[in-house]
Design goal:
4 helices; 13 strands; five-stranded antiparallel beta sheet; alpha+beta; six-stranded antiparallel beta sheet; Jelly Rolls
């Protein structure tokens, strides 16, 4: 007979899922993003087969982009604390964002976002199709996977990887150091998202 026990989670990794399903905001963002794509070849980062804008969506995306970034920063504030006795300085956030437009077959390869605390993604448009999931990878799993690839811990949530299905209006926030990728999306239209990096900066009072 097994002993009675309780599970105390350790070293939790937060995944914050919020809903910002504002049709006017999404429509304005989509128009700005597609207009930018029409005039700019974009940059090559993790994207394979998709379009990745520069990191200045706050500037060329106008008020809708500023509002989205502000919403992401507010979400970061709501899910970040300074532990008692850990430093006495103030801090604020610096945020930058960019757009991704993926058509059928496009992917974003596995990567991390350096020099920031939180990363976020907002789904502006998701046409009918399959795939396109955001995949978050557990950094701790390689050793256990080599030892016992068929086993999982009980009652602790996803291991190795967690999948987030793209849904219009979803705003996803996760630690920037968490390796992630976007699986190939298959459909006749496109998937448009805005990614945001949020960095903590010291502020002298």
């Amino acid at each position: 007979m097994a002993l009675k026990a309780r599970i105390q989670p350790l070293f939790a990794t937060p995944l914050v899922i919020a809903n910002l399903d504002d049709e006017e905001l999404r429509s304005s963002l989509e128009a700005s993003i597609l207009a930018k794509r029409a005039e700019d070849p974009g940059v090559q980062r993790s994207n394979v087969g998709g379009w990745h804008s520069d990191l200045r969506i706050r500037e060329w995306g106008g008020d809708p982009a500023k509002r989205l970034i502000d919403e992401a920063v507010a979400l970061a504030n709501a899910h970040t604390v300074r532990p008692a006795g850990v430093g006495d300085g103030q801090f604020s956030w610096r945020a930058e964002g960019w757009a991704n437009v993926n058509e059928s077959g496009a992917v974003n390869m596995r990567h991390v976002h350096g020099a920031c605390y939180w990363s976020a993604v907002y789904y502006v448009r998701v046409d009918e199709g399959t795939g396109g999931e955001l995949v978050l990878h557990d950094l701790r799993m390689p050793t256990l996977a080599m030892h016992a690839p068929s086993l999982r811990f009980k009652g602790v949530g996803p291991e190795r990887e967690a999948l987030v299905k793209p849904e219009v209006g979803a705003l996803i926030l996760f630690p920037a150091w968490l390796p992630h990728e976007v699986r190939a999306w298959r459909g006749d239209g496109m998937r448009i998202s805005v990614a945001i990096n949020i960095s903590a900066i010291a502020r002298v009072s």
